[in-house]
Specification:
The complex is a heterotrimer of chains A (251), B (331) and C (285). With 251 residues, chain A is of the alpha/beta class. In chain A, the strands form two sheets. A six-stranded mixed beta sheet of chain A has the order 6-7-8-3-9-10, sandwiched between helices. A four-stranded antiparallel beta sheet of chain A has the order 2-1-4-5, with helices on one face. Chain A is globular. Chain B has a single domain, classed as ABC transporter involved in vitamin B12 uptake, BtuC. Chain B has 14 helices and four strands. Chain B has a two-stranded antiparallel ribbon. In chain B, a hairpin with a 2-residue loop joins strand 2 and strand 3. The longest helix of chain B has 27 residues. Chain B is globular, with a radius of gyration of 20 Å. With 285 residues, chain C is an all-alpha fold. Chain C has one domain. A two-stranded antiparallel sheet of chain C has the order 1-2. In chain C, helix 5 packs across helix 6 and helix 5 packs antiparallel against helix 8. The chains are: A alpha/beta (251), B mainly alpha (331), C mainly alpha (285). Chains in contact: A-B, B-C. Chains B and C meet through helix 5, helix 11 and helix 13 of B and helix 4, helix 9 and helix 11 of C.
């Protein structure tokens, strides 16, 4: 697919004092593919996500999303550009119900600064919230307080929050981390469903899953890109094997 | 009985009581209690401004007395020094408070947690000292007494605040309007955004909420409410003094809000009412009733941080049937 | 000119006393993450206790030893009864200390009345300083404050307990994992904070009035020193306290001291907004 690249990362670095978490990352991802980022612990994968979503500022380099430079934008602005993200350590709005969680995420697209309407009358967001509950199989839990959900359901809600913002690009940070095999299968299936109409970049440690669903894999190590390519190419890559696949430890 | 019904009935009772107080109260107690109730309503607005910020957005302001004081001084100085009539003076006071809330908020809301609380105190202290030393305008420590022009003067018809009924219902009208406004905002998308930001501000930003602006909106609204309280206070007492801008006043408002129940709409009235009634009843009997207040504060924080209102809401949710439109705690 | 020198000197003396009190506030804030609104009242209690010791024993020197000890005990008690239980409602700690402040002020007012008292300094002689009779006691007060501050820093850096305090401050989880009794450290910290404020009270009582509201003015000043000096920067707190008091003293000689106060508060706001680590870039939290 030609055209504007989905994500263009040019020479991005991130330094914390003397420590270099990201060191000259160069990346160009196309639309219409499910991308995976893999790499050993400390490779800078989550930092990479943090820098893209604006949670952290860059120490150098530029980031373009669908042609727009988002390097110095605020987190909420980047969200409105169409980037949504799940967090590695699941983080939802604990005291609110599942539906309320999804509602506010959906309403963010309609604008929250209206004060003269009762929020229950905001039907567009409510419908979106219900639709996502359906899509992720959370309908039975819609009125459950988020803090009382099981770990697997929180992970789904996490994805739901991201989806509710109608993203063009979904960044999933280890979405199946900590799940049992049945849940993993279900969630992976859902992710594949989602990938049919939304671009996804997924950080994942489970190599089997990655090889199963990803169209493109980027391998990161020591804060920069080690290799990039289709799953078969990555599997063949000697450097990658030694750096990562060779001494892989499942967590 | 569903939760919604109970809340509705409670609200109705409160409104009925308030509207009938000038006639009903004197039947049971001394008529000066009507005046006390007016005071309670006014001060409850200050507590409500604290409640709005803390209970809904999670920001504890220890400096709302600043906006109260500006509302108060706006009216007093407007009338005494600029010869403003009633409504212009009222609007001047409220505008002053709200304007300051915009400026102070733009700075303060960038901080969170303890630093936010500290800077709100600092801002209020700066203006307290300014008011104290700017004697020609504010009367400093001695205060600024003044007489209030008529509320409405059309031909022969006049409404003056010195008429007890007019005063009472004017206060009720303004206080009621403020609570209605707060209720509106709390139940609007912005109100939900408040709670969302309080709950998890990192996540809120990630789903596209402008956390800074949301907090600032709450701060400005709270400043507005506190300003109205100050203006009403000035009209009520026909007097303004810098001592009402001191952090102790802000602290009292926090105490009323906490004891009444943060995160509930009418908690502030409850807390303010409880403590002012306590003050009136106890201070004549026991000179050192403040000790009780201090202990009550500590006990509330340790054992009942959601306050009396919070306990009530929890009880209602436990024993009443959930209503069809069930939502999280807030009224 | 002599007035300026005298007032400037007064400023330094006060600054040192405030530094002593503010250090107590800083360790409470730094270690327990608590905004102690009652800290000024700890100082006030110190002055009252000093007065009480004087009244009962006629010996003011005794107060320098007794009061900090009593203060330490009271601090430990308060930490146990009030502070520990509210650890779960941390945001409300400021409200609880406000309640504590009310209790302390009212207790003192109930016991000793509302009328302010004056204490005669144990050293009554004065000396000629640039044409003004300056009290020896003030110099003595400054020396006591300096001594106490030095002892405090020595304790913090040279003793095991002090090192534990610094460890818990730096990383409470690792400290606990290493076997440091964090619970007790919190109690000791709070108690030391009270004791230092109380000692400040003993030192200051002869040069100020003893009344139940004495803490109200001290509190903002202490916070200014802590914030401007930099949270966690104890040396900075001392420097800021002395500097601010000195400048305020000088300004008092030709203008309303309220202006100095307003200026310091504006500086404090600026520091909070732009340099939360204080104007002396030092240790960070």
């Amino acid at each position: 697919m030609t055209g504007v690249p989905l994500l263009e990362v040019n020479g991005v670095s991130k330094r914390f004092g003397g420590l270099s978490a990201l060191d000259g990352v160069n990346l160009s991802l196309e639309t219409g593919k499910l991308h995976a980022i893999i790499g050993p612990n400390g490779a800078g994968k989550t930092t990479f996500f943090n820098v893209i979503t604006g949670t952290l500022s860059v120490s150098g380099g530029r980031i373009k999303f669908l042609g727009d430079d988002i390097t110095d934008k605020a987190v909420h602005q980047i969200s409105h550009h169409g980037l949504a993200r799940t967090l590695q350590i699941k983080s939802v709005f604990g005291s609110m119900t599942v539906r309320e969680n999804l509602w506010i995420a959906a309403q963010s697209r309609e604008g929250v600064f209206s004060v003269f309407k009762n929020w229950k009358k905001c039907t567009r967001a409510a419908e979106k919230a219900d639709a996502i509950c359906d899509q992720l199989g959370l309908t039975s839990l819609a009125n459950q307080t988020a803090a009382n959900l099981s770990y697997g359901d929180v992970a789904l809600l996490e994805i739901g929050l991201a989806l509710a913002t109608d993203p063009k690009l979904l960044l999933l940070d280890e979405p199946i981390c900590g799940m049992g095999p049945a849940e993993t299968e279900q969630t992976v299936a859902k992710i594949q469903e989602i990938s049919k109409h939304t671009d996804i970049i997924i950080i994942e440690h489970d190599i089997e899953v990655v090889f199963k669903i990803a169209d493109q894999i980027t391998v990161m190590a020591n804060g920069s890109v080690l290799a990039q390519g289709k799953p078969e190419e990555i599997a063949e890559n000697a450097e990658v094997r030694t750096a990562y696949l060779g001494d892989e430890d499942d967590d | 009985m569903t939760t919604t019904t109970i809340h509705r009935v409670g609200t109705l009772l409160l409104i009925l009581f308030t509207l009938s107080a000038p006639w009903v109260l004197p039947i049971f107690v001394d008529s000066f209690w009507v005046d006390i109730y007016s005071e309670i309503l006014i001060w409850s607005l200050l507590a409500a401004s604290v409640n709005l910020l803390f209970g809904y957005v999670g920001l504890l302001s220890f400096g709302q007395a600043l906006f109260f004081g500006l509302g108060m001084y706006g009216v007093a100085v407007g009338i005494a020094k600029f010869d403003l009539s009633f409504w212009p003076a009222f609007m001047f006071g409220v505008a002053l408070a709200t304007g300051m809330a915009v400026i102070a908020g733009a700075l303060a809301v960038r901080l969170t947690w303890h630093y936010f609380a500290i800077i709100t105190v600092v801002f209020s202290l700066i203006f307290y000292f300014t008011a104290l030393s700017w004697k020609q305008i504010t009367g400093g420590d001695d205060g600024l007494p003044f007489s209030v022009p008529p509320i409405v003067s059309i031909g022969d018809f006049e409404l003056v605040i010195t008429n007890p009924f007019t005063q009472y219902f004017f206060i009720v009208l303004m206080v009621g309007a403020c609570y209605a406004l707060m209720s509106r905002v709390i139940n609007s998308p912005l109100g939900r955004a408040f709670v969302t930001v309080r709950e998890n501000d990192t996540r809120a930003a990630l789903i596209g909420l402008n956390v800074y602006l949301i907090r600032l909106s709450a701060f400005v609204l709270a400043g507005f409410i506190a300003g109205v309280a100050g203006a009403l206070f000035a009209f009520f007492g026909r007097y303004a003094s810098a001592s009402y801008m001191f952090y102790h006043v802000s602290g009292e408002a926090v105490v009323w809000a906490i004891i009444g129940g943060v995160g509930t709409l009418f908690g502030p009235i409850l807390g303010t009412g409880l403590l002012i009634v306590l003050r009136e009843e106890l201070s004549s009997v026991w000179d050192h009733y403040l000790l009780l207040v201090g202990v009550a504060v500590i006990v509330t924080v340790i054992f009942a941080p959601r306050g009396v209102g919070g306990v009530f809401v929890a009880l209602v949710q436990k024993y009443a049937k959930p209503s069809s439109s069930d939502k999280e705690g807030s009224q | 000119m002599d007035l300026v020198i005298a007032l400037g000197l007064n400023g330094i003396v006060w600054g040192l006393i405030i530094a002593l009190i503010a250090l107590g506030l800083s360790i409470i804030f730094g270690l327990l993450d608590i905004i102690n609104i009652a800290h000024g009242d700890f100082f006030m209690v110190g002055t009252v206790l000093a007065w009480a010791v004087l009244e009962t024993t006629g010996n003011y020197w005794l107060a320098f030893f007794l009061v900090p000890i009593i203060g330490f005990g009271m601090g430990a008690l308060i930490e146990y009864a009030v502070i520990q239980p509210i650890k779960n409602a941390a945001a409300l700690s400021i409200v609880a200390t406000f309640g504590l402040s009310i209790i302390l002020q009212e207790s003192v007012r109930a016991t000793y009345g509302a009328a302010p008292n004056r204490i005669a300094a144990p050293i009554e002689e004065t000396f000629l300083l640039f044409g003004i009779q300056y009290e020896y006691y003030r110099i003595f007060a400054a020396l006591v404050a300096i001594f106490a501050i030095c002892v405090f820093f020595a304790f913090l850096h040279k003793t095991k307990l002090g090192t534990w305090m610094r460890a818990v401050r730096f990383d409470p989880e690792t400290a606990t994992a290493m076997g440091i009794p964090a619970r007790r450290i919190y109690m000791v910290t709070f108690a030391i904070g009270f004791a230092m404020a109380a000692l400040g009270g003993v030192v200051a009582a002869p040069i100020t009035t003893v009344d139940f509201q004495a803490g109200i003015d001290i509190l903002p000043f202490c916070f200014m020193a802590v914030i401007i000096g930099g949270l966690g920067n104890l040396e900075g707190t001392v420097a800021a306290a002395v500097l601010l008091a000195f400048v305020e003293g000088i300004i008092t000689s030709f203008a309303d001291p309220t202006f100095a106060r307003i200026g310091s508060l504006c500086l404090m706001s600026a520091v909070l907004m732009f340099r939360p680590h204080g104007i002396f870039a030092g240790a960070t939290r």
